[in-house]
């Protein structure tokens, strides 16, 4: 929950893990100068990377606004005033006479019976500057003006920052064609929004031990995220998956600890219910070995992150890959959830998140609902950014970590991106990021078998 003590603590911890300095906006300390510089540079790089589509822009703005709100609220009163002055946000408090006149209304809007209203300064601003307060009925409105308390000034500042950032992103988008003439920048910027920096889920590092083909059916019901359940069910029903589904599901299975031999057994058993073994061996087994680095460039491919699944290769008719929270109609999704006996309240909560574009939060709520998590502290620690992370968390919750296996620390790693001409980042230097984009062998295999 944004603004909750758990949220603030987590954000603070995450910020401290980065090299972007502490959590304040304004600081005159000399030692913070370097951090501040990095913070600025990273912000502008992200603007370039995230201005390319409406969806990316919306996501980026939301994160920036959350970060700004967090930092602004940690400033002292003098520092906040200074910030407003520096940014020409000069709002005059209303007079004491007017405050006395509106005392009852202000008190009602603040939900306060005590004397708090007497001690707080109020500002009269056009209601269009504080939509969020209006929607929450937290301000008194009169003649198109809202009376905002000093404590709620953040809403005004956020509105200004939102419109400034939105305009800047639009300007940056228009400048992109010029930037793209420089072949050194393009590959890095294009990949940045899809890059995943969390734990590396590949078969060698799976910490739940080996998973055999026979275990997959049971695990899919208990511990798979909805995207993988959907792929599994459609495979069981149709005895076939198209290329996008085979890639997404195959790499996920590899990441949870299914060996190449077991993967081959699993896919062969299912596909051969609808075709003969020869056809399977000729058309599909290459792809499976390829994902395990045994064919083509022999790259050890990593499972797809949520970001990649959500932002790339949307499913077409006959496809079952993608993220159901993003790619399924909300009504269909709600029906599916109800079919899994998820309570009405939870279905509504999840649908609300989906409608506002918070797909991973919707997935975290699905996790809570299906794992019966009620403790707010536990739910604050659920953070879904990878289907394999979802599986691991679920498996540990239901079974505890397997004995004799070392937990894999969930620490972000720095990725070195090697940019060569206009090519994509080298797979050797960027193992954890988008290795899964199709290469030539992949493409050939998919053309042969995508039927
Ligand atoms: Fe799968 Fe991630 Fe979507 Fe959850 S949010 S369904 S794990 S892609």
From TrEMBL:
CDD domains registered for this protein in UniProt: PriL_PriS_Eukaryotic
GO-annotated molecular function: 4 iron, 4 sulfur cluster binding; DNA binding; metal ion binding; nucleotidyltransferase activity
Signal sequence segment: none
Lineage: superkingdom: Eukaryota
GO CC terms of this entry: alpha DNA polymerase:primase complex
An annotated GO BP: DNA replication, synthesis of primer
Similarity remark: Belongs to the eukaryotic-type primase large subunit family.
Protein name per the record: DNA primase large subunit
Taxonomy of the source species: Eukaryota, Metazoa, Spiralia, Lophotrochozoa, Mollusca
